[in-house]
Amino acid sequence: MRRLILSRKGFDSSSGESASPIFEDGKIFSLPIPEPYPPSPKKYYELNFNGISGEDALIECSARKVLPDDYCHYDPALNTNEGIFGQHFNSQEELVNNGVDVGDLFLFFGFYRNFSIKRKKELHHLFGWLQIEEIILGDTAIRKYLKIKNIQHPHGYGDVNTYKENNTIYVGKRNLTIKNKHLLNKGFGLFKETHPDLILTRDGVSKGSWKLPKKYFSNSQDIFLNRLHWLDLENCFVNNFQRGQEYILDAEKYPKIIDWAHYLIDSHG
Fold this sequence. Notes:
Blueprint: E1 3-8, E2 20-22, E3 42-43, E4 48-49, E5 52-53, H1 54-60, E6 71-72, E7 84-87, H2 89-97, E8 105-114, E9 123-137, H3 139-149, E10 168-172, E11 176-178, E12 181-183, E13 188-190, E14 209-211, H4 214-217, E15 230-232, E16 237-239, E17 246-250, H5 256-268
Parallel strand pairs: 1-8, 2-8
Antiparallel strand pairs: 1-17, 3-6, 4-5, 7-10, 8-9, 9-10, 9-13, 11-12, 14-16, 15-16
């Protein structure tokens, strides 16, 4: 594994105009962004993660402009028999330009709140992961792959290609492989419940102010290959107030962060 990618997905203040919910019992649900027009294979009411429906999640976060019957951009798709994540345009160029390839690992995060608490703290929270088994490039190859596998995904659905020429899907491994260690059926998936280990936001500050664990990130001066920069390396503080999607870390030079990902998936996946 050479790259670890922190990938922002799901509802935010502009796409959905809300946070995804942390339920009172601790369960989390990543609400995909709305799809402004078909083609999309999924509506919100059709989603179901960990026994929670998309309609339940919309009710929990009091979404006003998104309805259960609306189409959603369900991506990454992580609760099926095959994990798939699609990317294109500038964000895909960033992944290519920074050497993201087979074997590398996405950790997906989003904007969350616990709506059962009156003073709702806004958080950046990890919700899922995918280790790359295969990369499918281009609209024709994507549609062929999805047809053979009998899978529906927004990056290859409908009769019209709405994506740029660099349309790409990343197919997840069945079994996670890290430093010759294997976790069966853990190549992709969702974290089911909130936990301090999964929260990027540090205490008492806005959601974009992060604290990464010193155990894995100390003495990693140039770990960030794009976008992010250390605010305070000694305390592992990072500020992320950008609109970008993909934040790429150098796991080849700093292999301790691979242990971090392994720990998260083994403990909470």
